[in-house]
Amino acid sequence: MNDRLPVIVFDVNETLSDMSVLGWSFEQLGAPAALADQWFARLLRDGFALAAAGDNADFAVLGRGNLHALFDRLDLSCPTAVAVETIMETLSGLGLHADVADGVKALHEAGHRLVTLSNGAATLAESMISAAGLRGYFDLVLSVAQAPAWKPAAAAYAYAASACAADPADLLLVAVHPWDVHGAARAGLRTAWLNRDGTSYPGHFIAPELTITRLTDLPRALVSR
Amino acid sequence: MNDRLPVIVFDVNETLSDMSVLGWSFEQLGAPAALADQWFARLLRDGFALAAAGDNADFAVLGRGNLHALFDRLDLSCPTAVAVETIMETLSGLGLHADVADGVKALHEAGHRLVTLSNGAATLAESMISAAGLRGYFDLVLSVAQAPAWKPAAAAYAYAASACAADPADLLLVAVHPWDVHGAARAGLRTAWLNRDGTSYPGHFIAPELTITRLTDLPRALVSR
């Protein structure tokens, strides 16, 4: 265990942003709401496949490509190209989960440096936290677009450590996705799993050091260690 | 272009096996048929994440883990553990697509060596092609369990080339999955995309050398090159 106050590295999609509105957007277009989850799983599947193959994909390109593939099979209320851009706009305008603002402020108050690290574009994260008035709490807003590979490849977390001028062991990743916790742990970071919906942690990924159900619980969880 | 008669490397899941029966199995358990696709996308997402992180996962472990995660949210007609094993049994007993037997025989007849390369267990592929009376047409039944990593990591295809005592350029991968075509092409193999359902090839993956809609068209497609 490392006693230094860790730099908190936030995942962005679903960890900070509330993606539940996407289901509603799919429905407005005449697609099943459940397709939103399937789209995001496929987007990640392709991004991870490309990372495993040695490539570093553009998140938005994979987003659009998979929307086209899913929408081409459906009879939507508008042309496919319009529907694709509608979803990409929804993705660009997502708000934060209800626990994020207070959690971010409490972690800042406790003296932690805060950064974000997304497989998506840094501009999306920038605009989302800026719109919520939280940009000033974050030292850096990072994207794997500047790294050699997507998370959960080790090189993505090493890039974040380097950008923070810190050892990987002085970083603590917070994410809702077990694959992100796994990759961070394997790259030598500390980890907290944000389990908002009370699911079980999959046994096939490295278990997190900490598990919290709300971001606002993280400062106390870190002190109790 | 390489003029030598290529060794044909078949992907297994969905390329040889007909997974459409899984939707029916999900329905029998009281789950939506569409969950079958979502399950398989999540299984691959986790396997590729682990490959990107430097791990080599067990296909069945990821299959069971993701079934548990999906079934825990639902009110099924039997206990979750029973439902999970029911789907895993369905997966173990899949039949071949209608075009596979004739395609395999025609490729053998044309003088090609035939092998399989699966992210799943070799035993599953063995029993499936044996049940169809086709085992004798295949030189090798390979799994990435014996390789350093899952497809589409380059090491998976290099393992197949080594097992065939052939150069990667003397292998031709046949797969329904664009991510597999991409990884194989990047690893120096020739590629054929088996596009049975008439979808578009995603622009974010390296395009295949050949596109066929039935396996029985592959011998002719190879001769026309």
How many helices of chain A in DSSP terms?
A: 9
Shape of chain A: globular
Mean pLDDT of chain A: 96
CATH superfamily of the largest domain in chain A: HAD superfamily/HAD-like
Numbering strands along the chain, what is their spatial order in the largest sheet of chain A? 3-2-1-4-5-6
Key structural traits:
homodimer; 225 residues; alpha/beta; Rossmann fold; DNA polymerase, domain 1; 2 domains; six-stranded parallel beta sheet; 9 helices; 44% helix; 12% strand; globular
3D structure, described in words:
2 copies of one chain form a homodimer. With 225 residues, chain A is an alpha/beta fold. Helix content of chain A is 44%, strand content 12%. The first copy, chain A, has a 6-stranded parallel sheet, with helices on both faces. In chain A, helix 8 (178-186) links the parallel strand 4 and strand 5 (190-194). The model of chain A has no long low-confidence stretch (mean pLDDT 96). Chains A and B meet through helix 2, helix 3 and helix 8 of A and helix 2, helix 3 and helix 8 of B.
